[in-house]
Design a protein that fits this description.
21 helices; single chain; globular; 568 residues; seven-stranded parallel β-sheet; 3 domains; Rossmann fold; 16% strand; six-stranded parallel β-sheet; 17 strands; alpha/beta; 37% helix
C-alpha cells in the first residue's frame, strides 16, 4: 500500500489536458465525518486536474461545504456538487442517554435511495468520458451496485476507519493479527461498540462491496504499517488493490489573517502561550448527558489549564431542521473561567485549532478523522471513546502508538466520568513528565506523517557519474532540483573515456558512443547502492533508461526490488 499524493503542489499541464478523459465520482455517507473525509479527498484528486463529481442530498452537500476547514471548496473549479433529493426520513434529536447514535440510522437507509440518480449520473458520464472512477464510502456500496454494468466504470471503497480497527474485526473471526497479546486483552468486542441494527446495515453494504476494484484508506504507513500489510496479505481483501493515501486533509493550514471567516477562538489562541491549551471536542454523533456535562465542566475548571471546549449537541439527520438542544453549564461557569477557557457552541474549526502552536493537547472521542488530524499536527490525545471504531482507535493511540492517555477506559463505558477523573487526565497530559514524553512521541509521529505527504512521500535516488549528475542539475528548467529534499543525487566516478569533438560532417553522434560504453561500468556501484537500500526499505523500484539495462542486471537477485524500463 503506497502513500503517494502531493499536497500544495502544481501538477504538470499534461495532467490537466488529460483530465477530461477520466472523471471521479465521490459517494459519501451523509454523516459529518464521512462527508468531510471524501470532500478532502476530492480536493486532492482535483488538484491533479481531474474533474470530481461529489454526490449527496441537497442538505448534506450544503453541510459538507459549510463545515469544511483548511481550504475553500467553492474555489475548486473542478469539483462539481450534485444535490439529489432523498425521500423524507425521520430526523429525531440525539438521545444523550444512549451511547450509539441510532438517531441517524433512518437517514442512512433513506440515502440508499440515491442508487437511481447516481446510476443515471454514472451512465451519462460514461458516455462522455474514457473512464469513470467511483469512490464510495464503504457504507454506501449498495448505492453504486450498478457500476459493474457500465463497461468503462470501476469502483473503489473508501474505508472511513483505521486499518487497526479492521484488523481487530478480522481477529474476531479467528485470523492472526500483528498485535501484542497484552494489547489484544484490552481489545473491544464489536458487539460492545455498535447496535445489532447497525450491524445489519453494515453487513448489507459489505455484500454489495464485493465487486470493488480495491480500497482506499485515510491513513499513513507511518501510523499503521503492520495492519496495512496484514490487510494486503489477506485472502479476500489482499487480492484487490489497496492504497493508504492519508491524511486526506491539508497538513499545512493557511492562516486566513484577513479573512472574515477566521473563527474568534483562533484570535484567542493567538494570545496564548505555545502548547498551553487543551482542545475538548467529542465529534458530531454523540451528545453528553446533563450530568456528564457538569462533571466535565468542573474538571476542566479545576485543572487550572487553558481550554477550548466545543459544547454542541450531536448532529441530527438534517442539521438545518428544527431546534438544537442547548446544553446547560453550572451557574456562573463561563464568567469564572473567562480569560483561560472558551466554550464554543457553534461549528469550530477543528483542523486550524489542532494546527495552532498554542494547542498542546486534545480531549477526543477518537473518531478516526479527529485522530488523523491530531496525529498529523503532532498533538497528543486524551481518549474518551463513545462507540463504533472509537474504542479501537483509543487503544491504538494509547497502547500501540503511545501518543495519548485514557480519560475513560472502554471497560467503564457505562459509568459517568467524574470531575476528578477529568482534572487528573488534563493535568497528566498537559503538565506532567509522562505527558511530556507522550507529547514528544506525538510530535515525532506528526513530523513523519507530514513528511510522508510532501512530494508524494517517496524517496528518490538519482544515479549518475559526477560529470553527468552535475550537468543534469545545471540544465534543468521549470523547478529547482536542489529545493526538493527527497531527491538524493549519487555521483559515481566514471572510468576515463575518449571524449572527441563532434564531427560536423556526420549526422549520427558517434562521438558519444565511448561514453555510453564507459557508463555501463557503473553496474557495481549501482548494485551496491541497491543492496544497501533493499535492507532499509520495504520496496525498491528502479526506473532505468532502456539503453542502461545492463547496469541493473543484478536486480533479479535482490528480493524486494523490481525494475521498469523507461523508453526515452
Amino acid at each position: 500500500m503506497e502513500n503517494h499524493h502531493h499536497h500544495n503542489h502544481n501538477h504538470n499541464q499534461n495532467d490537466r489536458r488529460e483530465g477530461h478523459k477520466i472523471v471521479v465520482v465521490m459517494v459519501p455517507l451523509p454523516a459529518q465525518g464521512h462527508l468531510n473525509q471524501l470532500l478532502h479527498l476530492s480536493r486532492l484528486i482535483s488538484s491533479y486536474g481531474i474533474p470530481v463529481h461529489y454526490v449527496g442530498t441537497t442538505t448534506h452537500s450544503r453541510q459538507a461545504k459549510l463545515r469544511i476547514h483548511g481550504w475553500d471548496p467553492l474555489a475548486a473549479t473542478n469539483i462539481h456538487f450534485h444535490e439529489f433529493p432523498t425521500p423524507s426520513f425521520l430526523s429525531p434529536p440525539p438521545n444523550p442517554n444512549v451511547s450509539f447514535p441510532s438517531h441517524i440510522l433512518p437517514l442512512f437507509y433513506a440515502s440508499l435511495r440515491l442508487r437511481e440518480p447516481v446510476g443515471t449520473l454514472l451512465r451519462s458520464l460514461s458516455n462522455t468520458s474514457k473512464r469513470v472512477v467511483v469512490i464510495h464510502d464503504s457504507l454506501m456500496a449498495s448505492v453504486v451496485q450498478d457500476v459493474p454494468s457500465i463497461p468503462n466504470a470501476e469502483s473503489y471503497s473508501s474505508e472511513s476507519v483505521s486499518a487497526f480497527f479492521i484488523s481487530l474485526f478480522h481477529w474476531e473471526t479467528g485470523k492472526p493479527i500483528p498485535i501484542e497479546p497484552e494489547i489484544l486483552k484490552e481489545a473491544p468486542s464489536l458487539e460492545s461498540c455498535v447496535t445489532s441494527e447497525f450491524m445489519e446495515f453494515l453487513q448489507t453494504q459489505e455484500q454489495h462491496g464485493r465487486f470493488n476494484s480495491g480500497s482506499l484508506y485515510n491513513t499513513s504507513k507511518s501510523i499503521e504499517d503492520p495492519y496495512l500489510d496484514m490487510l494486503a496479505e489477506d485472502q479476500i481483501i489482499g487480492t484487490k488493490k489497496q492504497w493508504a493515501i492519508g491524511p486526506f486533509h491539508p497538513v499545512e493550514i493557511s492562516k486566513d489573517e484577513g479573512s472574515n471567516r477566521r473563527h474568534s477562538c483562533l484570535e484567542w489562541l493567538d494570545k496564548q502561550v505555545p502548547k498551553s491549551v487543551i482542545f475538548v471536542s467529542f465529534g458530531t454523533t454523540t451528545s453528553l448527558s446533563d450530568e456528564q456535562i457538569k462533571e466535565l465542566a468542573i474538571g476542566l475548571e479545576q485543572s487550572g489549564q487553558n481550554f477550548i471546549w466545543v459544547l454542541r449537541d450531536a448532529d441530527k439527520g438534517d442539521i438545518f431542521a428544527g431546534e438544537v438542544r442547548k446544553a446547560e453549564l453550572p451557574k456562573g461557569y463561563e464568567e469564572r473561567v473567562a480569560g483561560r477557557g472558551i466554550v464554543v457552541r457553534d461549528w469550530a474549526p477543528q483542523l486550524e485549532i489542532l494546527g495552532h502552536p498554542s494547542t498542546g493537547g486534545f480531549m477526543s472521542h477518537c473518531g478516526w478523522n479527529s485522530c488523523m488530524e491530531s496525529m498529523s499536527m503532532g498533538v497528543p490525545i486524551a481518549t474518551w471513546p463513545m462507540h463504533s471504531d472509537q474504542p479501537a482507535n483509543a487503544l491504538l493511540i494509547t497502547k500501540v502508538l503511545k501518543v495519548g492517555l485514557a480519560v475513560k477506559d472502554w471497560a467503564c463505558r457505562h459509568e459517568i466520568v467524574t470531575s476528578l477523573m477529568v482534572e487528573n487526565a488534563v493535568k497528566k497530559l498537559m503538565a506532567s513528565t509522562e505527558g511530556g514524553e507522550i507529547r514528544k512521541t506525538a510530535i515525532d509521529l506528526g513530523g513523519s506523517i507530514r513528511q510522508s505527504v510532501e512530494h508524494g512521500g517517496v524517496t528518490l535516488h538519482y544515479v549518475g557519474t559526477t560529470t553527468h549528475t552535475r550537468q543534469a542539475k545545471l540544465r534543468v528548467h521549470g523547478w529547482d532540483p536542489l529545493s526538493v529534499n527527497n531527491i538524493h543525487f549519487h555521483e559515481f566516478p566514471s572510468l576515463s573515456f575518449l571524449s572527441p569533438p563532434q564531427d560536423p560532417n556526420v549526422s549520427f553522434p558517434s562521438h558519444i558512443v565511448p561514453l555510453l560504453y564507459a557508463s555501463s561500468k557503473l553496474r557495481d556501484p549501482v548494485a551496491t547502492l541497491l543492496n544497501a537500500l533493499s535492507t532499509t526499505t520495504k520496496r525498491v523500484v528502479v526506473i532505468h533508461d532502456s539503453l542502461m539495462a545492463s547496469l541493473v542486471q543484478d536486480i533479479p537477485s535482490i528480493s524486494n526490488t523490481e525494475s521498469y524500463s523507461f523508453h526515452s
